[in-house]
Amino acid sequence: MPATPGRALRPTTKVMPGQARVYNRSLVLQSLYSDGPQSRADLARVTSLTPVTIGALVSELISEGLAVELGPRAGARVGKPATMVGFDPSAAHIVSIDLSRDVMFRGAVLDLAGTVLVTAEAPRDGRLGEGAAQVALDLARELVEKAGRPVLGIGVGSPGVVDPEGTVLSAPNLGWSGMPLARLLNESLGRPVHVANDANAAALAEHSFGGATRSGVLVLTVGLGVGAGILLDGALVRGDRFAAGEIGHLIIEDPGPPCACGRSGCLESMLSVPRLRARLAELPEIERQQAISKAGTSLGIALAPVISTLDLGEVVLNGPPDLLGGAFLDAAATAVRRRVLPVVGHALELRLSTLHENAVLLGSAVLVLSGELGVS
Amino acid sequence: MPATPGRALRPTTKVMPGQARVYNRSLVLQSLYSDGPQSRADLARVTSLTPVTIGALVSELISEGLAVELGPRAGARVGKPATMVGFDPSAAHIVSIDLSRDVMFRGAVLDLAGTVLVTAEAPRDGRLGEGAAQVALDLARELVEKAGRPVLGIGVGSPGVVDPEGTVLSAPNLGWSGMPLARLLNESLGRPVHVANDANAAALAEHSFGGATRSGVLVLTVGLGVGAGILLDGALVRGDRFAAGEIGHLIIEDPGPPCACGRSGCLESMLSVPRLRARLAELPEIERQQAISKAGTSLGIALAPVISTLDLGEVVLNGPPDLLGGAFLDAAATAVRRRVLPVVGHALELRLSTLHENAVLLGSAVLVLSGELGVS
DNA sequence: TTTTTTTAGTGAAGCGTCTTTATAAAACGG
DNA sequence: CCGTTTTATAAAGACGCTTCACTAAAAAAA
């Protein structure tokens, strides 16, 4: 017998025995959420639960306000007309906070369908540590007060390494090291709080709102820093030290340009928006396209092993389209396709995000939706 | 955050009250399997089920022969003496088949603890397609007959891309394309059959028998080809086209040595055992160490993005120790640590496998153990 | 028009599995 | 020798799903 004391019992199967009801409930809710209004009979077919069970679950959801009856189905069919049931996106609101920008924290109130209803900003004014946390807290409080419905929860996308309990283990930009952000917000605001890394949140947003449908998706966020989020079968990869996706300081050129991290040739030192813009500004017009292509190729070379190893189906870039679109994207795609197995390269979709700067806000909302309702 | 089900509903994981029982049963079995003999009260504590439930589950397991009572606990304590219950590795046998070697298919009979009891080989004699499948089938049949206990199932590690139903979608070496291997063996032998890619099987073996305990593990198998298996939280990454880990033909040098795949600079063209040995043979003694180091560095450069992106905790190399140990391993480790985030590089364990050529056989057995009993 | 078929939805009874509560057994400690 | 602690099982109850039986309403067929 493999004597491996202390190895945890399989945590992968999230479905616990007593949780069967909860699971089935979220199965129904998920179907209403992503497939739109359906009759109870439709739900029974798609979930392969019995009509009786569906009836009970739906009336529970209706009594909570999460679902509503929408009247008879349009278009005539044989048999008793079905009563359509739909998800009600206005049942509650979500407060979302994006801490990934340097000078301004951004926040929003969203409905359950991810529609942004209210936005707000709060200048950080260079504050670090507790001070920065206070800015985030005040912004969250302001938005909770502005929400016109019960607040389902508060989602936060933070730079740095975030553990599953919502403690920011390390975020140098904000002067945070072991900052218990989720606990802080929860104790002050009395609402469920979910915190994740900003790039990971952006990846969730692509899955739920950006049309990323493959089972293996990598989302690369390029801004002040460079970060990634990986979704396998819709679930975020967390990593051994919760640092999955922290590839900004992966070295891809040796030797390369120096980086703030103390080393050189980091992905961030070559691709981050300020660094890339600065480099381009130094060049004459005609050499810029080439420099952009070169950067794209570097990225492609770095991503190829990841795409190949995980057999990813989709790679999404989120950042300024004027930098990442066109030549950059083409060069990256070419570099990847030259390097990976043809069958993988052919099927791979490599594209820009359509969510732009809302990705982190939307992703933070997904944290709440999936944490509180089991929906995404 | 919560590992949420993907956008699509997954009717496969439908949870009925009856499934809860199965889950709890495997929870108990898993604990007995990996943590060793315990009393019913111990099991109740570790699984957080009630003593009553444990009592019922344990007597079910005992009646099936999977568990046995081992008498009172050694060493006196307060209270009624506990009766120890243990997993019985000899309750059944497993037939394992390794198709990864070129000239010989290897097979074995193992007990449930992974102890190899009988081995057998079957020469393929260059047969391809149906012929090769027939060799595998005959080998499996021979081993099923040699098993001294009921055969729990048949596990197969095959080169190429294998889908979850056990169909080998593509294995050029064996002339297979869409070969329904699991169905074939199941129909002929009447036992449950589980098929997986050979490198993926080797990764499972490292997890269950090789002491790989981190939540993120990559196992690189270097032999005639080069392949990988990635385990996240104990579960294999499958990939969008079931091709996860197929990194043999990832291009890491451009230009590089030509490869059988038609391109050049593939990982396999540089690292596969025959190619590496051939290259070394051409060199004078003094240059060999350097060539080995160079190969290790190339591997490290290719793996660094993967390790960084997934925040892996452990990388295991399986292959000839005379090639992969020493300079190769050191060079790979150095190359990786130079490139990834220091916090990731420090914690990373990069080592050789201790399972050697049994990895695929053991991993195929794990397929059966986890598929049939839910233990690993 | 009337009857049959098809689809939608709900109530009642039953079954499996977990939990709670109660009880018995066996060891230690004062 | 009697309370305390720990182990284990038995009996009763709760929960949630399924099956079976039924009503409801509309199209299709006779």
Strand content of chain A: 15-25%
Unreliable residue runs of chain A: 1-17
How many domains, in number, for the residues of chain A? Answer: 3
Total number of beta strands of chain A: 15
CATH superfamily of the largest domain in chain A: ATPase, nucleotide binding domain
Family (chains A, B): Belongs to the ROK (NagC/XylR) family.
Pfam family, one (chains A, B): ROK
Protein name (chains A, B): ROK family transcriptional regulator
What does it look like?
The structure is a homodimer of 376-residue chains. In chain A, helix 6 (198-209) crosses helix 13. Chain A is an alpha/beta fold and 376 residues long. The first copy, chain A, has three domains: 17-87, Arc Repressor Mutant, subunit A, CATH 1.10.10.10; 93-202, ATPase, nucleotide binding domain (Nucleotidyltransferase, domain 5), CATH 3.30.420; 211-353, ATPase, nucleotide binding domain (Nucleotidyltransferase, domain 5, 2-Layer Sandwich). Chain A starts with 19 loop residues before the first helix and ends with a helix. Chain A has 13 helices and 15 strands. Residues 1-17 of chain A have low confidence and may be disordered. Chain A has helices at residues 20-35, 40-47, 51-64, 130-146, 181-189, 198-209, 267-271, 273-281, 285-310, 321-324, 327-339, 342-347, 359-373, and strands at 38-39, 67-72, 83-87, 93-98, 104-111, 116-123, 151-158, 161-162, 168-170, 193-197, 216-222, 226-232, 235-236, 314-318, 349-352. Chain A is globular, with a radius of gyration of 23 Å. Chain A has a five-stranded mixed beta sheet, sandwiched between helices. A five-stranded mixed beta sheet of chain A has the order 13-12-11-14-15. In chain A, strands 1-3-2 form a three-stranded antiparallel beta sheet. In chain A, a hairpin with a 5-residue loop joins strand 4 (93-98) and strand 5 (104-111). At the A-B interface, helix 1, helix 6, strand 12, strand 13 and helix 9 of A face helix 1, strand 12, helix 9 and helix 12 of B.
